[in-house]
Amino acid sequence: MIKRLQDLFNMFTKIVTGITICSAVFIYFAWGPDTNLDVFYLLEIILVSLLCSFGSVFLTGEDGKLSGLSMGGRLLLNFLYVNLIVFICGFFFEWFLFGWKMICGMEFTIIGVFILVTLACYGMDARTSKRINERLNKRNRNTENEEK
Questions:
Q1: Which residues lie closer than 8 Å to 56 by C-beta, 6 or more apart?
Q2: Is the pLDDT of residue 72 over 60?
Q3: SS3 per residue for the chain
Q4: How many domains does the chain have?
Q5: Residue 100 burial (CB < 10 Å; 0-12/13-18/19+)?
Q6: I need a surface site. Which of 4, 30, 79, 93 has the fewest CB within 10 A?
Q7: Mean pLDDT of 132-140
């Protein structure tokens, strides 16, 4: 349970950062540099990030015994879930007008955030795995030296 909460918080921080950066770029190009936003926009970003985090943590899971196909399926399911959350919330929060340009822009933004967050997670997982392997190798060498 604690691990899930840690994963949720870690994912939340990555998603809220990604959404904030990509939203700034999207708003600049879609609405112009003179756009003024209400402070509730920040709360909306936090809510969307939290909802997307739940999907990321619970849909991808932590089971390391998944095949590549199964993990790919979960990643696709998570991507579809994120799209659903962003478009539903975007509609209710009136973030955009539903036109082809706006929908394409939002989709590129979603893809950008999704890729950034996914790469950040994989990078952190790879570093953690490397550290664990280094510690195990060091421990094994120490054990071998003690036996001699």
A1: 11, 15, 78, 82, 117
A2: yes
A3: CHHHHHHHHHHHHHHHHHHHHHHHHHHHHHHCCCCCCCCHHHHHHHHHHHHHHHHHHHHHCCCCCCCHHHHHHHHHHHHHHHHHHHHHHHHHCCCCCCCHHHHHHHHHHHHHHHHHHHHHHHHHHHHHHHHHHHHHHHHHHHHHHHHC
A4: 1
A5: exposed
A6: 4
A7: 83
Q: What is the pTM of this model?
A: 0.73
Q: What is the reported pLDDT for 46?
A: 92
Token representation of residue 41: 């926009």
Residue 102 tokens, joined: 């706006």
In a domain, 144, yes or no: no
7-45: pLDDT as tens digits: 788 888 888 988 888 888 878 887 788 888 888 988 999
Query: Nearest to residue 84, comparing CAs of 48, 112, 60?
Result: 48
Q: What is the reported pLDDT for 63? A: 52
Q: How many CA atoms lie within 13 A of 83 on its CB side?
A: 12
Residue 49 included in any domain: yes
Domain carrying residue 33:
2-122
Q: Which two tokens stand for residue 91?
A: 């509609």
